[in-house]
Amino acid sequence: MCVKQISISIDNVPGQFLAVSEFLGAEGINIRGISVADTSDISTVRFVADDPEKAVNVLKSHGYSIRESDVIAVEVPDHPGALQAVLKPLKDSRINVLYLYTYLGRGENGQPIVIVGVDKTHEAISVLRNNWVHTFGQEIYTL
Q1: Which CATH superfamily includes the segment(s) 2-69?
Q2: Is 2-69's fold the same as 71-136's?
Q3: For residues 51-80, b (16+ Cβ closer than 10 Å) or e, as one string?
Q4: Fewest CB atoms less than 10 Å from the CB: which of 24, 32, 87, 113?
Q5: 135: pLDDT confidence band, cut at 50, 70 and 90?
Q6: Is 122 helix (H, G, I), strand (E, B) or coil?
Q7: pLDDT tens readout for residues 104-119
Q8: Distance of alpha carbon 31 from alpha carbon 130, whole angstroms
């Protein structure tokens, strides 16, 4: 399922991410999946929130520059090698996985959820849906 991801860049100094968390928390917005990648001066924060539209508005009101993108939320079985069911069909379809991180929670079937950023989102959804039904007899998880 396609979900909205919010990305921001913050200075790599103490308290910057705390401020983001406080702004969102004060408005009742829950971060459900998050990835933080740093360089020496800047960190890129990518996250999925339970209310992405509200999260964007809150962060913009505090002066943050926001990038929104579509990512895929996929429920995967919880056993060794299960991630191959996501990665192999994408590779076979020449879809590049740009990044992947975990969702904080479990899907409808009690399995872990991963957030996947790819270069061809809608094509990837179709590929995964077809492969997922064939391999596991269930659909891509919908948040």
Answers
A1: VC0802-like (3.30.2130.10)
A2: no
A3: ebeebbebbeeeebeeeeeebbbbbbeeee
A4: 87
A5: low
A6: helix
A7: 888 777 888 899 999 9
A8: 29
Angle at 93 between CA 87 and CA 97, to 5 degrees: 45
Query: In this model, does residue 139 exceed pLDDT 80?
Result: no
pLDDT in tens, 28-85: 999 999 999 988 899 999 999 999 999 999 999 999 999 999 999 998 888 898 899 8
Local confidence band at 143 (pLDDT 50, 70, 90 cut-offs): very low
- Output the CA torsion 72→131→141→104 (10° steps): -60
Task: Report the distance separating Cα 52 and Cα 74, nearest Å.
Answer: 18
Domain residue ranges of the chain, discontinuous segments joined by +:
2-69, 71-136
CATH of domain 71-136: 3.30.70.260
Are 49 and 32 in contact by the 8 Å Cβ rule? The answer is: yes
pLDDT for position 142: 44
